Amino acid sequence: xxxxxxxxxxxxxxxxxxxxxxxxxxxxxxxxxxxxxxxxxxxxxxxxxxxxxxxxxxxxxxxxxxxxxxxxxxxxxxxxxxxxxxxxxxxxxxxxxxxxxxxxxxxxxx
Length: 110
Hints:
The protein is an alpha+beta fold. Helix content is about 25%, strand content about 45%.
């Protein structure tokens, strides 16, 4: 993660956990959090953990956030994502809504 980019703590924790594994990623979210990725929706920590485990098994990715914007209460993070998927590397957008120090909602788009 570039040292010049300062992310809110829950988002920084997410990108750190992304390198550690599904259990660590799930703990970054509220118990009823929602993740939207590839037109799929995952609700709750167990579903988020399963989503992350499946994604890790399918893709080997590295994610490097490089910009942050706050738009109407939603943190929009752009990141370079490289891995073993078609079109790699590419820049993706991660939209985070935070709640009491955790992520309540995250949407991943291209």
